[in-house]
Design brief:
The protein is α/β, with parallel strands linked by helices. It is built from twelve helices and 15 strands. It has four domains: 86 residues, Chorismate Mutase Domain, subunit A (Up-down Bundle); 95 residues, 3-Layer(aba) Sandwich (D-Maltodextrin-Binding Protein, domain 2), CATH 3.40.190.10; 79 residues, D-Maltodextrin-Binding Protein, domain 2; 81 residues, ACT domain (Alpha-Beta Plaits), CATH 3.30.70.260.
């Protein structure tokens, strides 16, 4: 219990000391997580052990309640973050061993928009997990990203592919039909839209609103209630913020991240304006060469395929996946340019490309389809929280 006779400065000093101790302990725990990964190399055990994680959380919750007066929700939230970090550390370690030619401390990465765009934020988040320093390459269009990587001017490209509110980003799916690149990673990034202006102004004074078309869709319910506002499309949310900064008028606003708005001297006059409170965008990472995925890591494999113009041809292909117990997490169809009424199907599967089940499924799918291509097999880095029942 805190000694109430201490002055505020003394209490803050003690808090600082405790924070330093926490940082030291977290660092030690991270080091032990790597040792766990090393021990799993010889045993071939998977990175995640759901039973072990559940037992750990229950033990911590009981101990926290009995000895430290800490509630279950607090402990669960804290250790979900710690477990997620441990899982990602172990996955990165095993992936580096599986791809020694790709281990680097520096990478050139192409993404959409300027500094502060959601693509830029997602890029930094993804590569910070890899402890990789970046040379950032701003691109104006999605095609510029793939062209830059294909030309060898960037090592990786980051592309948004779907959003929980506005759905699939068709332009990116269409690019994947023709690119020679492979998907080597993914990240799901939270999108928190705000209405940003140069100064604090009344909402009803806004006459022009700048953003990328995707945020316009994702905030359509909020925008529907605005009167006499003209929507202006920009290459990215960062470019929208730059435009509002340069115009320096009280009747213009941008949609984007409030944190990024500070880079351009903008402030939020309305926050949380997305149609859905749980608004996430999934980004894929592309490169010129595929990666190998350790079998100890959960993986996703993405295919594109076209089926014969016959009754039940798509169903027959999907039944192959069912027969081998392969879970499909995404099925997207897009028209094939130059072939009216024909569709290309994009399929995301929770499976390792090198697993016996996936290899046999590919053999059968090749016989059933008119075109089949593996776009990539890559680690699943969206770590789901350990599920336990709280009493």
């Amino acid at each position: 219990m805190t000694d109430t006779s201490l002055s505020l400065d003394e209490i803050r000093l003690r808090l600082n000391e405790l924070d330093d101790q926490l940082l030291s302990l977290l660092s030690q725990r991270r080091a032990l997580s790597i040792e766990v990964a090393k021990s799993k190399i010889s045993t071939k055990k998977p990175v995640r052990d759901a039973k072990r994680e559940q037992q750990l959380l229950v033990k911590l919750i009981n101990s926290g309640k009995e000895h430290y007066n800490l509630d279950a929700q607090y402990i669960t939230k804290l250790f979900h973050t710690i477990i997620e970090d441990s899982v990602l550390l172990q996955q990165t370690y095993l992936q580096d061993l599986a791809n020694p030619q790709d281990t680097t401390q520096h990478a050139r990465v192409a993404f959409l928009g300027s500094k502060g765009s959601y693509s830029h934020l997602a890029t930094r988040d993804y590569f910070s997990r890899k402890h990789t320093e970046l040379t950032e390459i701003n691109c104006h269009q999605f095609r510029d990203i793939t062209d830059t990587v294909e030309a060898g001017q960037a090592d990786f490209g980051v592309l948004p592919i779907e959003n929980t509110s506005s759905g699939s980003i068709n332009e990116v799916y269409d690019l994947l039909q023709h690119t020679t690149l492979y998907i080597v990673g993914e990240i799901t990034y939270p999108i928190e839209h705000s209405l940003l202006t140069r100064r604090e102004v009344p909402l009803e004074s806004i006459r022009e609103l700048y953003s990328h078309p995707q945020p316009h869709q994702q905030c359509s319910e909020f925008l529907r209630h605005l009167k006499d506002v003209e929507l202006r499309s920009c290459l990215s949310t960062a470019d929208a913020m730059k435009t509002v900064q340069s115009l320096d008028r009280d009747d213009v606003a941008a949609i984007g991240s409030a944190a990024s708005g500070k880079l351009y001297g903008l402030q939020p006059i309305q926050t949380h304006i997305s149609n859905q409170s749980e608004n996430y965008t999934r980004f894929i990472v592309v490169a010129r060469k595929p990666v190998d995925v350790s079998l100890q890591i959960p993986a996703k494999t993405t295919l594109i395929m076209s089926t014969k113009q016959e009754v039940g041809s798509l169903v027959s292909s999907l039944l192959v996946l069912q027969r081998y117990g392969i879970n499909m997490t995404k099925l997207e169809s897009r028209p094939i340019m130059g072939n009216p009424w024909e569709e290309m199907f994009y399929v995301d599967l929770q499976a390792h490309l090198d697993s016996p089940e996936m290899q046999q499924a590919l053999v059968e799918l090749t016989a059933l389809t008119t075109h089949l291509k593996v776009l990539g097999s890559y680690p699943i880095e969206n770590v789901k929280p350990t599920a336990i029942q709280l009493r």
